[in-house]
Inverse folding.
């Protein structure tokens, strides 16, 4: 049994109504899902947003991820716990994990050690059913497209130009590319199709950016699923699918409340991919959290070049949020990998490698400042880290005027992040934030891509083929010129080359394609191979997951 | 707004803990899902089955369905309500509705009028997520099959002989027949595949027949998904998928408690197809209900030739249940259709047509007696029914020694089924039941098919091609000779010809194919076209389903 699971099982959870009461949520607003999970009613969300003051917003992001691991989720949980520990009212906002990766290699996504959200097995499996609801909405739309064509195609959909794909919350490479509607007249017109994992569905992105139920239904209606032979877009509203999709998502849109091992309230809601989508938990949860607490601690997917940039330029821009500080998580081990050390050699002290690798961290720190936010570095400590290695990071950060705080929440829980919590509070109390998105709404879409590439990725240039530029012009002509950009890029590097670690310079960002996600409200720029349906490994985790004789789950983590 | 929905919305629901307490279920055994739904913990199910006396079991079944409608679910609800009304402790056990048909033509499946289970919108949509869990388990197994082949196919699976299909809870004809794993090396080996609606998945059947979690895991392991080139079966256990599938289903296996409009407790759990599977709610729910009440009222899919026969020969046999009485639901309208009247002409009195059509009902009455059960006919009254028509039915039933009771639960609730409740109690109090399945375990599989065809369908003969007989012999050689038979046949007739209404004679039952469902534990005999993935109609209900300005659901019913 894993240590994470052992710790989670040993914990005594408090009834969710008690956690809710502490967070200022009355019983009447709770829809319990078992004893330790609850959804928070949409009416209460609306009234809290209208009536209560808004707290501060702190984003937890990271350096470019490496196989060494960084611990962004554990730091988010640890920071929230520590803020509560020092007497602040803090709410933690996380993404919901996808079911698919649980059965592959990834394992759970509910934190670890003494910095976990619980009940971790529920959260990692079906939880409150949100992803199943999103899957159903996605696939109802797909069924209605083929059904529309089957019954005469009054809208004139060009079957070669259907862009809407089906979805499952499963790692299943066999579904990436299929030909459907085979088998004769009764089954429709055969065409190429495919499935994405549900976190890559535009329904997920629209769900996470919706301000309320009415906004969600409008966004769903705007989703473009295909075009006619003469290029006219066909939307979910044209197919009259938006209403039923919203009905399927009504209960799911209510944020989910759980607790950390330390008893902090946590809203775990929504979970879009961080490449093809914006990689943050729902606007519903974040805004609710802000009106229930002094400080919301939330995280964004991948490193700060993708996660923080999208959180700030997409989520905060579209939701009217103004964050107040940003924590950047790093580990000595990961910095050594950015400095060129192989994973097998991480056990040896290598101060020079740390000094080289810290360039990755330093660039993220500089980038965060470009958004007008004060950064704090959280150095997530591992036992093998040496004093000299730690000093190398702290000195580099001091040179940038940024604190780098050692954290030991994995082993010590809230006590291990108290210093980080104080550092964050210093930034908040000093009111240092002057948030502004990286680029204004009004500049051309191509220019927005160029701005992100140059300012955040530090690319020398952007390569956009004429055909792709023409698509961007078409999106602008369609009225989507003000949309923010969501870049799908490797998470392992500032550049589009996943092997270029540290702080690569002089690279060119190649934009292969662009897509308009009209329902989500952003334009995706694709800069490499984007995997929207993972596969299972040679020996999937599923093979060792089972129930023991007491009916308890074995092998999930 | 439909009348059903209007009535449901006007109802004041009681907190589910109150309903549970009335049914003898302590708070500690409840896992609430919102305020009006709860799962009942597996530990409590086990202890109730061990410690509490077992009540009586009453099956509600019907004549062969017609477009006129019979009202089996409303009668089940009405009878349960009336039994509680007259001072018995009754539990209602129903199947969970499938999400797919809600968006097609069917509408909801939670009863109607004043005989409904509520909250009806939840029950008809995601409910407690059971079907989503079953979908995930089905599709994890599918992914593990293709993944196994992808990584070298150590088990030697013959890709042409994979019988396991993927599943969704959606009406989507485009997925009936697909070719998957297209797109190159990274996506696997292309092969023919397809999706069934989840109620047709063997996981659903195994789930509904499982006695407990350990039994479920064993059943899942036995599921045969493919064979090798030399015909050796490959199971879910061979693929090591059974454990993870059981983990996905763990929470789902706990029965769901809701209430009727009259406040009766109802267990709504599981919902396998009634053609390719056995069409009853879960063994978990039925056995729990029996140990919580004086009388369990439950229903089975389609008419008694399919639903009751399978309930008795499959579910009761495999679960060791011994039912005590059987209610057969009919309407004057439907009997007139069996007597040859067109739907458009049902408004006119036609006593002769009733007299002709009653032959269908009479045969079902005779059949039920063959199982050693006392039948009671419930005549579900419509306003246009005339006294002379009703008398024709009652006289025909009296000639068989069977009571035919007029019911008006749709408009009157429990008061409209009090007389039926008394008639049922007379049968129970007289201890008339001497239940025995139609055929013993030990006879050959082909002979079991013949017995059902002759005794229940009144076929002159059964036509089984030699190739199909050879398959049955193979199943016997594999050790499944004792399995019961599940016949997939049209529900509209005793025969395999859907247009042969009334009580057809001299027909031959053609068995086209047989399948071994080793996990569910029965052999399916297919006698016609079996649709395992419905399509959407020209104007799907989904087009008019949406949220109103208060966020309430419109158009679902």
């Amino acid at each position: 049994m894993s240590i994470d699971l052992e710790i989670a099982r040993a914990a005594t959870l408090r009834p969710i109504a008690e956690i809710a009461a502490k967070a200022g949520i009355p019983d009447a607003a709770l829809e319990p899902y078992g004893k330790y999970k609850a959804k928070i009613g949409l009416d209460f969300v609306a009234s809290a947003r209208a009536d209560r003051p808004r707290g501060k917003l702190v984003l937890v992001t990271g350096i470019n991820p490496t196989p060494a691991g960084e611990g962004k989720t554990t730091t988010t949980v640890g920071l929230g716990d520590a803020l509560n520990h020092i007497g602040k009212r803090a709410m933690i906002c996380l993404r919901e994990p996808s079911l698919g990766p649980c059965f592959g290699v990834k394992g759970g996504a509910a934190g670890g050690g003494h910095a976990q959200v619980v009940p971790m097995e529920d959260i990692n499996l079906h939880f409150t059913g949100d992803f199943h609801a999103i899957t159903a909405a996605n696939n109802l739309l797909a069924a209605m497209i083929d059904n529309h064509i089957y019954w005469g195609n009054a809208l004139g959909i060009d079957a070669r130009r259907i862009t809407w794909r089906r979805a499952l919350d499963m790692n299943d490479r066999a579904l990436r590319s299929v030909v459907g509607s085979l088998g004769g007249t009764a089954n429709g017109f055969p065409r190429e199709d495919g499935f994405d994992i549900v976190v890559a569905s535009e329904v997920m992105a629209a769900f996470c950016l919706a301000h309320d139920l009415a906004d969600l239904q409008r966004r769903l209606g705007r989703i473009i699923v295909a075009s006619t032979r003469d290029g006219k877009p066909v939307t979910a509203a044209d197919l009259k699918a938006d209403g039923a999709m919203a009905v399927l998502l009504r209960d799911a849109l209510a944020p989910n409340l759980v607790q950390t091992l330390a008893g902090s309230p946590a809203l775990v809601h929504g979970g879009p991919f961080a490449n093809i989508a914006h990689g943050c938990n729902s606007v519903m949860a974040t805004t609710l959290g802000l009106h229930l607490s002094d400080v919301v601690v939330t995280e964004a997917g991948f490193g700060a070049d993708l996660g923080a940039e999208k959180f700030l330029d997409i989520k905060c821009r579209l939701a009217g949020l103004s964050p107040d500080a940003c924590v950047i998580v790093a580990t000595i081990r990961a910095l050594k990998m950015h400095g060129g050390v192989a994973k097998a050699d991480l056990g040896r002290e290598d101060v020079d490698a740390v000094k080289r690798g810290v360039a990755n961290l330093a660039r993220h720190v500089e980038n965060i400042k470009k958004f007008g936010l004060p950064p704090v570095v959280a150095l997530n400590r591992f036992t093998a880290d040496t004093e000299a290695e730690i000093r190398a990071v702290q000195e580099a950060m001091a040179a940038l005027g940024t604190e780098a705080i050692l954290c030991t929440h994995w082993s010590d829980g809230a006590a291990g992040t108290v210093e980080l919590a104080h550092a964050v509070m210093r930034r908040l109390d000093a009111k240092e934030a002057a948030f502004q998105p990286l680029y204004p709404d009004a500049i051309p879409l191509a220019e927005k891509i160029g701005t992100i590439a140059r300012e955040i990725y530090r690319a020398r240039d952007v390569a956009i083929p004429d055909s792709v530029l023409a698509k961007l012009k078409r999106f602008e002509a369609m009225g989507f010129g003000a949309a923010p950009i969501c870049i799908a890029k490797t998470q392992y590097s500032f550049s589009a080359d996943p092997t270029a670690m540290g702080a690569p310079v002089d690279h060119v960002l190649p934009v292969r394609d662009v897509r308009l996600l009209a329902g989500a409200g952003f334009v995706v720029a694709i800069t490499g191979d984007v995997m929207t349906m993972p596969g299972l490994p040679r020996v999937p985790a599923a093979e060792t997951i089972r129930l023991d004789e007491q009916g308890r789950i074995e092998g999930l983590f």
Summary: The mean pLDDT of chain A is 96. Chain A touches chain B through 80 residues (CB under 8 Å).
